[in-house]
Each structure stands twice: as C-alpha cells, then as structure tokens.
Amino acid sequence: MAELPDITDGRGAVRRRWGIRVWLPGAWLALLALAALSAPWIAPHDPLAQDLFAGRLPPAWVEGADPAYLLGTDNLGRDVLSRLIFGARIALVVALVAGLATCLIGSALGLLAGFYRGWVDLVISRLIDIWMSFPPVLFSILLIAVLGTGLHSVILAIILIDWTRFARVVRAEAMAQGAMDYVASAQVAGMPRGRVLLAEILPNVLPTIGVLLTLEMGIAVIVEAILSFVNLSIPTDDPTWGGMIAEGRSSIHQAWWVLAFPLAALFLTVLSFSQFGEGLKDRLDPVLR
After folding, report:
1. Which member of 70, 79, 182, 214 has the lowest number of beta carbons within 10 Å of its beta carbon?
2. Which helix H or strand E contains 207, and what residues bound it?
3. What whole-number distance in Å separates Cα of residue 141 and Cα of residue 196?
C-alpha cells in the first residue's frame, strides 16, 4: 500500500519558514522603530553638525578612524551613524502614514466595488484603469512639482499613486468571498447588505489587506528614498537615506562608507517589510495552514 504523506512534516516546514520570515524581519523593524523613537537620546552626535577637520573619517574598525565616529563621517564631517538614525525616523513616518492611508482608501473602494458590483464596480474599476495608465514614477514627480517639496507632499503622492494596488486586490478578494455560501446564508437570514460587508466579508479579507499593507510600507520607503535622491523630498538639511545615498555616490572612491551604510539600511528595511508580509501570508492563509 502506498504510504500517506506526513502532514506534520509540511506543517513543521511552514512553521519554520514562518518563523524565519516573521521573527527576523520583525526584529529588524522593531530595532529600527526603537532607534527612530529614541533618536535624540541615542544618536552620538548632532546629525547636522559639521566639522570640516573631521571629514571623510573611516568607520571605527578601519585604520585612521576616530572612535567617536563609529560608522565614520561624510564629506562635511557629519556623523554617518547619527544621520542614519535620524533618517530612519523619516523613512518610518512615511511608511506608516502613507501605508495606512493608502490601505484605508484603496481597501474601502475595493470592498465597495467587489461586493456591490453593478454601477459601483463599473465606476471604481474605470477609475482604477485610468489612474493606472499614468507611469507611477513620472506621476509622482509631476505631483511633487505641483504640490511642492516636503514630507507631506511625498506622503500625498504615494497615497495618490498606490491606492489602486489595494483597490484591485481587495476587489477581487471581496468578489470571491461574496460568492461563498456563508454570505448567501447571511443575506437569506435578512442581514442588511452593509452589515454583511462589515461583519462577514471584511474579516475574511483582512489577512490579504494585512499582507498588502506590509508590502506597501516597503514600497513607501523606496519611493521616499528615490525622491530624496533626486532632491524632491524634504527641502531642508534633515538627513534622509536617499539624500545620504546621493551624497555618498559622488565620493564612493574616497569614502565608500557614506554610500554603503544607508544603502544597507534601505535594503534591509525594504526586505524586512517584504519578508514580514510573506510570513504573515504563510501564517494567515488557510490553504497554506
């Protein structure tokens, strides 16, 4: 007789994969959030303080370094570690505010379109198609040019561009859930349509929304870094990862650390958001469970 597959081995593999994809990225994001919240107290130096006599000092473990500057200094003698910590505050603010606002707007429209169908779905779907016809990068630059530079403009640009991602996915998920028997049973029982949407469909769509939210936060960090790189984000001297990357690019052969550390922080943060979302999907998806 053919042996049945060992289901427990599959569950164990899912649990191990879930642990790697959730706990490791979650630890990095928690550390980053803690550093951002306590930046004024843990940053070893003023991120805007310049010391031309201490310019381009290498990290503390490289010969010729100053132990007071753990990750070295940039061309103007500013501490790279302090600027990284304060730059994390801007990156996380953009990720949280833009991600949550995009999630709320796109998910609400997607739920309405997927559940009510008819002219509601037609109007929202046509709006999504029109909105997605614009190239996102050019659209964001155009919005910043119209709105002006600043953190609020960056957040608003991300919201206006990325709400369609939530709307499309949530619409499809709401349509799939709306065809389930439990929705038909609730409607036969006389439950109002609005209550069916909020009490029956929304809880079953929330896992998908949660995964999309974590992915959107990573995308928001990338967009802010890109706009900072081309000097379309914060117009002041406040440190941003994209601005640090732009500054380090011009001196990569003389001071590689000015470019390497913000790039590493950006890469780890975006990867952590992505893997955290995939881990949540493994945990919350009933099929994978």
Report:
1. 182
2. helix 202-229
3. 41
Rounded CA Rg of the chain? 23
Are the C-beta atoms of residues 69 and 81 closer than 8 Å to each other? Answer: yes
Angle at 181 between CA 180 and CA 186, to 5 degrees: 110
Q: Which pLDDT band holds residue 150 (cuts at 50, 70, 90)? A: confident
Which of 126-130, 151-155, 262-266 has the highest average model confidence (pLDDT)?
262-266
At 2, is the pLDDT very low, low, confident or very high (cuts 50, 70, 90)?
Answer: very low
**Per-residue pLDDT tens digits for 37-86:** 998 999 998 898 888 888 888 898 888 878 888 998 888 889 999 999 99
Residue 205 domain-assigned (yes or no) = yes
Q: What number is the average pLDDT over the span 190-217? A: 85
The token pair that represents 253 in the structure block: 């052969």
**Domain total for the chain?**
1
What CATH number is associated with residue 127?
A: 1.10.3720.10
Side chain identity at 200, as an amino acid letter? E
Listing DSSP states for 152-208 in one string gives: HHHHHHHHHHHHHHHHHHHHHHHHHHHTSHHHHHHHHTT--HHHHIIIIIHHHHHHH
Of 194-203, 207-216, 254-263, the least confident = 194-203
Report the C-alpha dihedral over residues 65, 68, 72, 73, rounded to 10 degrees.
-120
Q: How far is CA 116 from the centre of its chain?
A: 30
Phi, psi of 73, deg, nearest 5: -130, 165
Q: CB under 8 Å to 193, separation ≥6 — which residues?
A: 115, 116, 187
Q: What digits encode the pLDDT tens for the residues 272-285?
A: 998 888 777 766 65
In a domain, 214, yes or no: yes
Give the domain extent around 108: 16-38+69-284
Q: Dump the DSSP string for 123-151.
A: HHHHHHHHHHTS-HHHHHHHHHHHH-SSH
Per the domain annotation, does 63 fall within a domain?
no
Length of the chain: 289
